[in-house]
Amino acid sequence: MIKILAIDDEPLALRLLEVYCAKLPQLKLLATCTSPRQALPWIEEADALLIDINMPDINGLDFIRSLEEPPLIIFTTAYADYAVEGFRVNAVDYLLKPFSFSEFEASIQRLEERLSTRKSQAPDQDGFLTLASANRNIRLETSRIRYIEGMGEYLKIHLDGEDAPTIVFYRMKNIAEELPQGHFLRIHRSYIIALDRVREARRNEVTLDDKTKLPVGESYRASYRELFPK
What we know:
The strands form 4 sheets. The protein has a 5-stranded parallel β-sheet with strand order 2-1-3-4-5. A 5-stranded antiparallel β-sheet has the order 10-9-8-12-11. Helix content is about 25%, strand content about 35%. By secondary structure, it is of the alpha/beta class. The longest helix has 19 residues, at about 100-120.
């Protein structure tokens, strides 16, 4: 089941999305919202947003950019001018109003493909992660991971023995849940560290054993101090 959240300031547009979603049994419409702010309580639960761009209280693009870890996005708008900007935030699709049910269904199929890619990236039992990178799957040994750097829907994974990081299509929230428990810690909205690589832990900064210095974010400080109380 794909959990969908619809955001549009036009009630008729929301009603059409309700009708279209009801025709596809794989979709669960969490809520229909007339503004991005009204949608905030459901954002973390949603797998994807159906969202307009031109809205009175906040532009849909600006709203997506304001989210730390946005769900997948399908833009639904009457303005073709924003298409390039829409794909710059890695939107799954861009539906130009008025769009037909067949066009909507095709977008949902693209969404399912994107979600399927993510689900195939679960960790193996033998300490490996299989992740998508440049249209191919790569298998990484979790014990080689030094730290992970978030870049929206992409990650830079810094590994032992590699000068350049491996870039994969994944979200920080998802990989944080799937890494071996007790071996990694998220210390910042943009960083996850391997605990056995920590050389020095200060209140606001971690130094790894290769002298990499990373900041500790305010919202992650409580869990960090549990492990590094000094």
